[in-house]
Design a protein that fits this description.
Layout (H helix, E strand, L loop, with lengths): L4 H11 L5 H14 L2 H14 L7 H18 L6 H20 L17 H6 L11 E9 L5 E5 L6 E5 L1 H4 L5 E13 L2 E8 L6
């Protein structure tokens, strides 16, 4: 794995609330198919300059303009390493979906048109299989975000389940094992986010 997590976080913060993750995923698919970083920038520039001929939605064109600007700023350094560019962009897109599914932890970019999941709605979204609110799960802290929250790789659950520690609960933690109670569940495009509250291991 050759992800630059710092760049991914910065890119996601720049795109949050401005770009639909599904459109960003199309750009990622193009990059992976061409395996050429420069080709991605040429592709985005072509859409930005001539996209009106094939893309009728002004909002979609705006997405590509935002992506082109943000990609040039954050990903130009990886033009000669398309694999690293793709993995870094892929993680940024994952963060975009995460911010949209769990808006409490989104960076300071907001939009009235952005699809949000309210606290009450999110708690009503059941995962296809897996823990429910009130259950206790275990995992490993794998990533701290710039906003103070943390990602947790969960034990004995499919890869589409992601644990989330709130800023207050992640404070002072850098890595290592975590045992947490599920206090909220949100789902976005097949990824299930479990917001966790740390709990102590019961005494034997």
């Amino acid at each position: 794995m050759s992800i630059d997590f710092t760049i991914s976080s910065q890119l996601a913060a720049d795109l949050a609330g401005k770009v639909d993750p599904n459109e960003a995923s199309k750009a990622l698919a193009y990059l992976r198919s061409r395996k050429d970083g420069r080709a991605l920038f040429d592709y985005l520039q072509t859409i930005e300059q001539h996209g009106k001929a094939v893309i009728r939605s002004h909002q979609t064109l705006r997405y590509y303009q935002e992506m082109h600007e943000a990609f040039k700023h954050h990903l130009s350094q990886f033009q000669d390493n398309p694999e690293k560019m793709a993995e870094t962009l892929g993680w940024a897109i994952r963060l975009l979906r995460y911010y949209r599914a769990v808006p409490d932890y989104q960076p300071n970019y907001t939009t009235q048109k952005e699809k949000r999941v309210t606290r009450s709605e999110a708690q009503k979204i059941p995962p296809p299989v897996g823990p429910e609110v009130g259950d206790v799960v275990t995992g490993q802290i794998i990533r701290l975000h710039n906003n103070g929250a943390a990602d947790v790789k969960l034990n004995r659950l499919p890869d589409n389940f992601v644990g989330v520690l709130r800023k207050a609960d992640a404070k002072g933690r850098r890595s290592g094992g975590i045992r947490g109670e599920v206090i909220k569940i949100a789902e976005e495009d097949g990824t299930v986010y479990l917001v966790l509250k740390p709990v102590k291991r019961p005494k034997e």
